[in-house]
Amino acid sequence: PQAWVVGLDASPDMVFRARQSYDDVQLARMEDPLPDGPWDLVVSVLSVNQLDDEQRQNLCRQVKTQSRSLVIGDAFDDNELNDLVKWCDGQITWQQGNLAVVQATY
Hints:
The chain is an alpha/beta fold. It has helices at residues 12-18, 53-66, 78-87, and strands at residues 6-9, 24-27, 42-45, 69-75, 91-96, 99-105.
């Protein structure tokens, strides 16, 4: 199947590296408005924990309105993890220590 991958990263070096393999990689911060959807899948790895509660809620709100699925893999304390699951209407699919994967389907 054909797929179009859009990557976002706040690091100019990572954007440069990713552009060597993917078509559409943009310098952006997760707390900025996301590119226009709809998207089939949004994946975030080791970055959501850098956001404060308000920014995480906003990210979940944006993704829920424009995406069919969300997967987040990150390090969380218990309160952060429980709040994220609630805000994204998701579920914890894997957890070990403070690392967890949260998945949601819309």
